[in-house]
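Appendix B, Record 12. Input sequence as logged:
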Amino acid sequence: MVPLIPSQTELLGGLELGGVPLATMLSSITGLPTLFVRKEAKTYGTCRLAEGESPRGRVVLLVEDVITTGGCGP
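Logged structural output:
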């Protein structure tokens, strides 16, 4: 997957839940920082939608483990 990362990427965003381990591994290989993105903001603790470095003003590559068409099967 590393060759697919655009050169301008500044931050990897791992989407909950399956994208987190993929983004973590890509971060380990490339040295790019990682942001973990939840489906919904927490209602306790930090109350944040994402944990990690701030994405504000940065080019973020979102990493997900599933690709769907939106269809309902054959």
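Residues 19-30 form the longest helix (12 residues).
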